[in-house]
Amino acid sequence: MSLVFGAATSDRVNCGSGASLDNLTAFTWLVWVYVTTITSGRTIMNKAGTGVKNVRLISGGGDPLNTLDVLVSRATASASTVGSADDVVPNTWQCFGVTYDETDGVRIFKGSLTSALVEVTYSFRDVGSGATTADDTGSLILGNNAAFTLALQGRLAVVSVIPNRLTLAQLRAWQFRPRSSVDSTINASRLFMHLGLVGTGTQPDWSGTGNTGAVTGATLGAHVPLGPPFAFRSQGRGTFAAAAAGASVVTPRSFGLLGVGA
Length: 262
What we know:
Layout: E1 2-5, E2 12-14, E3 26-35, E4 43-48, E5 52-58, E6 67-72, E7 79-83, E8 93-101, E9 105-112, E10 118-119, E11 122-126, E12 140-142, E13 154-162, H1 168-175, E14 191-194, E15 214-216, E16 219-221, E17 238-242, E18 248-252
Antiparallel strand pairs: 1-13, 1-16, 2-12, 2-15, 3-8, 3-13, 4-5, 4-12, 5-6, 6-7, 7-11, 8-9, 9-10, 13-14, 17-18
């Protein structure tokens, strides 16, 4: 399942402001999203206290159409990055990755069910300067802005927050097998959610850090078709051989729970 936003502009998931989510000076945000309508300023993810971290959809307003706009507040000059035209494609599942650290600022990556993540081209990119501004007074909001006035129009299926800048190879490793940790050299996620998996009640945080999400207004929709969220690595596939009476025998491949580590 996934969660559907946009019936009301206040639709959202509020993941709170736990210490494990606060004041990250390097991070990766990963999300599978299905946008149905692109309207200026609609927000995929947002954490805004004194400092601001957000990923917005843009349509007009001086920026190219259908882009991602990412802003991270810094003490001297904010890190601000805007993608190129038509990075966001309506009515299709897309995977977006956002990475940040104080040395290199924000980078944006896009992929789909049929294409691996690649870095976008930019219409604007400013690394910024100064320390990353503290955001511990603001909650992490999925599918809306901090004021709850610009809900995403579409669906969110899987969301992860990792307290490091991942490499492109690590981003791609997560894309088709979302999980709470990409490999043993990377810290575990601070947030990992399969939205809608348990309905529209409190959304569990499968990372183990306890950053559960309170749902307002969102409804249930179809999940991104990546296979079961918790399953064998083969996702039910294997080597089939004929058996007596026309039955089939499955020889399974490797075993491992998706969503709970590398």
